[in-house]
Write a structure and sequence with these properties.
- The complex is a heterodimer of chains A (353) and B (507).
- Chain A is mostly helical and 353 residues long.
- Chain A has a domain of 208 residues.
- Chain A contains 15 helices and no strands.
- Chain A is globular, with a radius of gyration of 22 Å.
- The two termini of chain A are 35 Å apart.
- With 507 residues, chain B is an alpha/beta fold.
- Chain B folds into three domains: 235 residues, Rossmann fold; 173 residues, Rossmann fold (3-Layer(aba) Sandwich); 66 residues, no CATH class.
- Chain B has 18 helices and 20 strands.
- The chains are: A mainly alpha (353), B alpha/beta (507).
- At the A-B interface, helix 10 and helix 11 of A face helix 10, helix 11 and helix 14 of B.
- Chain B: This is ABC transporter.
- Chain B: One of its GO terms (molecular function) is ATP binding.
- Chain B: It comes from Oceanobacillus arenosus.
- Chain B: Keywords: ATP-binding, Cell membrane, Membrane, Nucleotide-binding, Repeat, Translocase, Transport.
- Chain B: It is a peripheral membrane protein.
Chain lengths: 353, 507
């Protein structure tokens, strides 16, 4: 219950639809992003066509197209959520792709059913092995993130430099130690992603949604979430307000590592393997793009978890559209680039008023 | 060259800063521009320098009407403005700084370093400056930086130079050097407008004076005809409230126990060997001129800087405060100077800015207790006399004074035992200033120990029980009761000793 306020806002006079739209367009940053997303979805629906025998058939086709889109982007989507927090503190994490590979490799070596399996060697197998793997992999992701965070805060090195270095180190180390081995993941592990609910493979989407919901709550209602904004908006003022700036930053990078390791588990359990030289390449850029399209300010202080979800969907739907239109693969990146720049241009326009 | 400003008016919003001011200056004279903080000196000079636009009035150069819409036009007309913060690039040598923005280039388009170097050397020779043009600006002391700025102004063929408090951060010998430079410029028929608070310097170097008070021209004339006492009374006016707001203490025991004691605090760079203590319910002022190190000292005590050597005692037990969070838990609050850089967080709304300090205290398992913050803020709102719209409005929608009150509110919510206020009335209008004084006095009655850092002697005299005066990182002296007056404070702040004979009577 909120206490009564002396100056409660005057009851909004009835606005026409157009006026209300204009007001929201220029005052609610998420509104314009949502409109953009809706337009994309309408376009996509039109492009898919209505050339079906029945509504049911059309709906089935439309849904399966959507499930594909969402499932394919769940991993990056989760990483983009963490990236939003990182950027909100005024930082950046270029190492997410490499963290994905190193945690993914760790997962595969832990539960390999062949000779390389670490857990198998000490006699743990089956469901306990899988649970232990999940815990250890997430732990490793958290640790690596924390390591990056410590270097940034205690070492006072710019995030760009630290994560650029980490990006090279993590992948290189993984590739060196993983060469020449073929690991195979136990069937039960694949269930993490492939478990079907009513004939639909939607587990990755489910994870993404749950994590997004948790982080949305964290960003809105918790001390940690609000301190992220304070630190990113005015680090000096935050420090002088008794906020432990270094701790906030450290936790943000650690959380980033944790989220990447979850993405790694999803990817390994979906495909059953991981290509250590290519997996996760460019993932950092996709995550940054989603955050930026979703209204996150690269200078820190402003960002929206919900916006990043929208941003991710906009990029994903556009990829799908380009695919449907038959745009040559090499040109697709160009469209992604255009979307990112246009999205930021639009946001600038609102802010400069 | 002669410059006349006629009937200049300027207001910011409803605040009339300059009300119908006219004056003139010509080459070869040094004219002092005096006035208290907020009298309108900077605004008037910013109009002349093309930084601000006047609302009405005229500027005439050699009898011809001109308009300065941007600083470059003013510079073009031969008026150079040397700001208090020097505009030099530390990582470039002197001669490149001299030509910043107007670099000399060779035919092929690269920088003609040799010519720039030689021209600088010529200028230094003409102005009797003993400096190597190839030296890095980083390696110069403040007086030479000041001199480089002056020479740069001369390089643009400036015939009128505005100097905004050039001597505040200089030592005596450095001041002499700058004054010698000013004499040389006078000989070169350059006019100088010298903004300063130091009346002795004005008597020493200036020919004429102008005194601004509340945006009006209070007095002008020749320096030879007045004394520092006259100038001071012109500046202050006769009706100004200088009496202490502090209630008389009936019994000495009323002052409570010691809350904070500091022994031998030193950080090598900004302050050295600081000793003082403060009791419950006491209001202690700390003042000094630019570069005295008081902000750095109290930020260190607050845990915002590296741990200094020396000892800090809270309620008699020694503490090592390593972070601001720890300081907060120990009951120390610090309201920083420069509200915009250090105080407010512009991406957050009023209530968030007002509750940021207490988020962790009122939260349960990390979840912010919004209701409690709203309640707390509503309790404070009346006593702070806050003028604002809705709690969820942006912090930037408030006026400076109200923003400051919000920043104050965030600390009061934490129930501090020691409250450090660094320049609490900076950029705050008169009404809000009085409100803030009231709040300070009320808090002292609630037995909070209060430390007020301020560069305004008036402010210190009005609200504090006693004051420490700092000079270049050391506590130069302490003043109290009758000794707490502008004269003795200024004398200590400029590195002098307490003049026991004269300081009894107000200046």
């Amino acid at each position: 219950m909120k206490p009564e306020l002396e100056n409660t806002p005057p009851i909004k006079e009835k606005k026409t639809f157009i006026e209300g739209f204009k007001y929201k367009w220029s005052n609610d940053p998420l509104f314009s992003i949502l409109i953009a997303l809706i337009i994309m979805v309408i376009l996509q629906t039109l492009t898919l066509g209505f050339d079906y025998n029945s509504v049911g058939e059309w709906f089935q086709s439309w849904t399966s197209n959507w499930i594909n889109i969402l499932r394919n982007n769940a991993g990056v989507g989760i990483v983009a959520l963490g990236m939003t927090f990182v950027i909100m503190t005024g930082g950046i994490d270029l190492a997410v792709g490499s963290t994905l590979v190193i945690t993914g490799a760790f997962a595969m070596y832990l539960m390999d059913t062949g000779s390389a399996g670490i857990l198998g060697a000490i006699g743990i197998s089956g469901v306990p092995a899988i649970i232990l793997t999940i815990i250890l992999v997430i732990g490793l992701g958290y640790l690596l993130g924390a390591l990056i965070g410590v270097t940034i805060t205690k070492g006072n090195v710019p995030p760009f430099i630290v994560t650029l270095g980490a990006m090279m180190i993590f992948r290189s180390v993984t590739q060196h130690f993983a060469q020449g081995y073929n690991t195979s993941v136990p069937m039960e592990f694949l269930q993490i992603s492939s478990f079907k609910i009513g004939n639909l493979m939607i587990m990755p989407i489910f994870y993404w949604a749950v994590i997004a919901a948790i982080l949305y709550y964290v960003s809105k209602r918790t001390t940690f979430g609000r301190q992220i904004i304070a630190v990113g908006s005015n680090e000096r003022a935050a420090k002088l307000s008794g906020i432990n700036v270094n701790k906030v930053k450290l936790r943000v990078y650690a959380l980033m590592g944790l989220l990447v390791s979850i993405a790694a588990i999803i990817q390994v359990s979906r495909i059953g393997s991981m290509d250590f030289s290519n997996a996760g390449r460019g993932m950092e850029m996709d995550a940054i793009a989603a955050a930026v399209v979703g209204g996150t300010n690269m200078l820190g202080g402003r960002g929206f978890i919900l916006g990043t979800v929208y941003g991710m969907l906009i990029i994903a739907v556009m990829n799908n559209l380009l695919n449907l239109f038959g745009v040559p693969p090499y040109l697709r990146e160009a469209f992604k680039g255009i979307i990112v720049i246009v999205a930021v241009l639009l946001q600038r326009k609102e802010k400069s008023v | 060259m002669k410059i006349e400003m006629e009937n200049i008016r300027k207001s910011f919003g409803s605040n009339d800063v300059i009300k119908d001011v006219s004056f003139s200056i010509q080459g070869g004279e040094i004219c002092a521009l005096l006035g208290e903080n907020g009298a309108g000196k900077s605004t008037l000079m910013n109009i002349l320098g093309g930084v601000h636009q006047m609302d009405s009035g005229a500027i005439l150069v050699d009898g011809k009407k001109v308009s300065f819409e941007i600083p470059a036009q003013s510079l073009e007309a031969g008026i150079a403005f040397i700001h208090q913060e020097l505009n030099l690039i530390n990582d470039l040598p002197i001669y490149e700084n001299m030509f910043l923005g107007r670099e000399i280039k060779t035919k092929r388009g690269s920088l003609d370093l040799k010519q720039m170097h030689d021209k600088t050397a010529d200028m230094f020779e003409r102005m009797n400056v003993d400096l190597d043009p190839g030296k890095m600006v980083r390696d110069l002391d403040s007086s030479y930086k000041q001199i480089v700025e002056i020479c740069r102004a001369m390089m643009t063929n400036a015939s009128i130079i505005i100097m905004d408090e050039p001597t505040t951060s200089l030592t005596d010998s450095e001041i002499k050097r700058v004054f010698k430079m000013m004499e040389t410029m006078k000989e070169h028929n350059v006019g100088i407008i010298f903004i300063s608070h130091k009346l002795n310097e004005v008597m020493q170097i200036c020919n004429r004076y102008l005194v601004l008070r509340d945006g009006n021209l209070a007095a002008e004339g020749n320096v030879s005809e007045v004394t520092t006492k006259d100038l001071a009374s012109y500046m202050v006016g006769y009706d100004v409230r200088t009496e202490s707001l502090r209630r008389e203490r009936e019994v000495e025991e009323e002052i409570g126990e010691e809350v904070l004691r500091v022994e031998g605090l030193t950080d090598q760079k900004n302050f050295r060997d600081i000793n003082f203590s403060i009791k419950m319910g006491e209001i202690v002022g700390v003042t000094g001129l630019l570069g005295d190190g008081r902000s750095e000292l109290f930020q260190a005590i607050f845990g915002a800087e590296k741990l200094p050597s020396g000892k800090i005692y809270l309620n008699g037990t020694e503490v090592k405060i390593k972070s601001t969070y720890q300081a907060l838990k120990e009951g120390i609050a610090y309201l920083p100077r420069n509200r915009k850089e250090n105080g407010i967080i512009k991406d957050m709304n009023i209530i968030e800015n007002a509750s940021i300090v207490t988020w962790p205290m009122f939260s349960k398992r990390g979840v912010i207790n919004t209701d409690k913050h709203w309640q707390k803020f509503e309790e404070q709102r009346g006593s702070l006399r806050l003028k604002m719209g809705v709690l969820t409005d942006s912090i930037t929608s408030l006026s400076g004074g109200n923003q400051q009150k919000v920043v104050l509110a965030k600390w009061l919510a934490s129930n501090p035992k020691i409250l450090i206020l660094d320049n609490p009335t900076q950029g705050v209008d008169v009404g809000a200033k009085e409100d803030i004084y009231d709040i300070i006095l009320k808090l002292a009655e609630e037995n909070i120990a209060i430390i007020v850092l301020s560069s305004e002697a008036q402010e210190i005299i009005r609200v504090c029980d006693r004051a420490l005066v700092m000079y270049h990182g050391v506590i130069q002296g302490e003043v109290q009761d009758k000794m707490m007056n502008e004269h003795s404070i200024m004398s200590l702040a400029t590195g002098g000793e307490l003049d026991l004979e004269r300081s009894g009577q107000p200046l």
